[in-house]
Predict the 3D structure of the following.
Amino acid sequence: MKIMVTGGLGFIGQALGRRLRDLGHGVVLVDSLTPQIHGAVPQVSAPDGVEAVRLDVRDLAERPDLVDGCDVVYHLAAETGTAQSMYRVREYVSVNELGTAALIEAIAAAGHRPARVILASSRSVYGEGAYTSPKQPGMLLQPAPRTPAQLAASRWEPLGPDGTELVAVATPEDLPFMPGSIYAATKASQELLLRAAGPALGFKPVIFRFQNVYGEGQSLQNPYTGIISIFFNRARQGKDIPIYEDGLESRDFVHIDDIVDGLVAALDADIPDGATMNLGAGVATSVIQLVDQLLMSGGFDVPVRVTGQYRVGDIRHCFADLTQARRLLGFEPKVSLASGLDRFCAWAGSQPVHEDRLEQATAELRARNLMGK
């Protein structure tokens, strides 16, 4: 096939591009090489055997030739910082929503249109995700985002309508949108745009909602997203590891190899129009557990501080129900967190040391009243 990947020189895009190339496909990677991810002077090159085009995704409408003749488009290009999205609102809406609109216009103008557009969406569209109440254990609940007042009082767990603390369970795809950040709202908008355009333009939209993706090749210099790389960067410089809230907040950490497996499986699988699937490890890991394993994998001995700080817009828990991906794709995550972090630390330790900018990012949030304590 001929395949285009937007955001193709990013972490996931490069790994996907290499896999597609190895499978014999013709691959075009489109990327703007933003400084926040790639540095002021990007030190990135396309994998051997694939074509790369430097282009802002919002300019794709003027380049329908890039889409023309493609069998499949993977749409990965996006701004991805949850906290940063709360004050760089126009940029996140512009890149994520207008970028998707520009892709749709390019498809409309193409002579030979892709049969599938595969979107990298996010678990953030669920907000706090799925929970149950100890009083009603068989009923799925979806709590509203935690309020600034609740966070300021260190009441970390989401609450039910009666004030009862809820218990997180695996989040299925049929949970409604309840975005708690601008980033999450733009990812929901991307899904809606592609679902609306697909039937009219003759392509099948396939939606993946990624959990927290990590692994070899991820950016080590972006202080706004990717806590594994942020913590590694601090630890290798002998700095302490600050953990927000009480450290028991949890995420679903999924290795890049497993994400690429799912993306490639969607190329020609027999799946319905608009199919939506979670991709993750399906396991909740607390941030304290993550840090313990990261320090062990990297051989670091640095202080760990549970700060009680919080960011407005952060969720407390979310981990994936993988039933759909298993049923439609035969997807099964293979890389354990311990093995994945061992691999990540071995790779990251061979990379240049980057200036730690976590304090800078924290100060930006605090100046906008988006950071507490």
Remarks:
- The chain has one domain: 2-372.
